[in-house]
Amino acid sequence: MCRDSFVYLVGIPLAEEYFRKYKFVSAIDAFRKLRDEPDSELLDIRDRKNVKFLGSPNLMMLKKEVVPVEFKEGNEDGFVKKVLERFEDAENTVVFILDSFDGNSMKVAELLFKNGFKEAYAIKGGVRGQQGWMAIQDTLLPPPLQNKFPPSSLFIP
To answer: PROSITE patterns from the xrefs (predicted)?
Structure first.
């Protein structure tokens, strides 16, 4: 009986999390999948002001472009409609969501998965977080994929 409780309390939740088609992934895992999987795309949900100040990741080396669609809480239906207009084959697309940190990215990942995307992943740390896109770019990404972000001393650790 104790073994059955363990399966229900630990095993099943772990399996559900592992196989779930929307969840957090590290920035480097997102980069690797963007590089290796032709059906993967990067969706930047930050507001225009943030994108203008920091720019978006450069994916030219991967022959991909970042898809910018600003997410505003309270306009989920309008957001989903705009995103679906930008992706012709959502049901076969794995989308990685980039936010400033990771505030709305998981909500957006779940929203997009439930609206037809094959898989949707929130990038842990977003652009500016501790292990986000900016943190990995200097050491892990080749120079053509690095943005010319302002010096890291301008960002909150």
So the answer is: RHODANESE_3 (PS50206)
Contact 147, 110 (CB under 8 A): no
Of 66, 12, 9, the C-alpha closest to 42 is 66
pTM over 0.85: no
- State the Cα–Cα distance between residues 30 and 128, nearest whole angstrom: 15
pLDDT score, position 155:
36
| Closest by CA position to 122, among listed 55, 30, 50 | 30
pLDDT, tens digit (0-9, with 9 covering 90-100), for 31-71: 999 999 999 999 999 998 888 888 888 888 889 999 999 99
Q: Are 41 and 93 in contact (CB under 8 A)?
A: yes
- Please name each of the domains of the chain with its CATH number: 21-154 (3.40.250.10)
Which residue's entry shows tokens 């740390």? 125
